[in-house]
């Protein structure tokens, strides 16, 4: 997930997260707890003129760094190193899945 590939509303969300917590500008990951805390704080600021955007479920359902830790697509880290490859990129996994499909095994 890269910042340059996000939609306009997703970029707004990331920008607001960074305004609220500037150290995220260089962060490569974010925990679910941080997402919850920041979003709740920004949600409360809506009445006083804060940005309006929904809960960033796309961030939580996006690529994981590890359990409970997700890729944070900040503008400063918008390069190829942020691209997370799935297990399906592994040639052995591709062969395994092809064999499963060949023999009618549904995974």
Characterize this entry briefly.
The chain has 107 residues and is mainly alpha-helical. The protein has one domain (3-102).
Question: Could you characterize the architecture of this molecule?
Answer:
With 107 residues, this protein is mainly alpha-helical. The chain has one domain. Helices cover 39% and strands 8% of the residues. The protein has a three-stranded antiparallel sheet with strand order 1-3-2. About 6% of the residues have low confidence.
Helicity, in percent? 25-40%
How many distinct domains? 1
Count of extended strands: 3
- Topology pattern, helix = H, strand = E: HEHHEEH
Task: For this entry, give a set of tags.
elongated; 107 residues; 39% helix; mainly alpha
List the helices and strands and how they pair.
Layout: H1 8-20, E1 29-31, H2 32-44, H3 57-60, E2 64-66, E3 69-71, H4 91-102
């Amino acid at each position: 997930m890269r910042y340059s590939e996000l939609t306009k509303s997703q970029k707004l969300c990331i920008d607001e997260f960074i305004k609220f917590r500037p150290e995220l500008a260089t962060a490569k990951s974010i925990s679910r707890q941080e997402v919850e805390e920041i979003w709740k704080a920004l949600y409360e600021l809506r009445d006083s003129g804060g940005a309006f955007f929904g809960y960033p479920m796309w961030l939580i359902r996006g690529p994981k760094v590890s359990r409970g830790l997700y890729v944070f697509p900040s503008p400063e880290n918008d390069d190829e190193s942020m691209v997370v490859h799935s297990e399906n990129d592994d040639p052995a996994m591709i062969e395994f899945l092809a064999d499963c499909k060949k023999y009618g095994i549904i995974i």
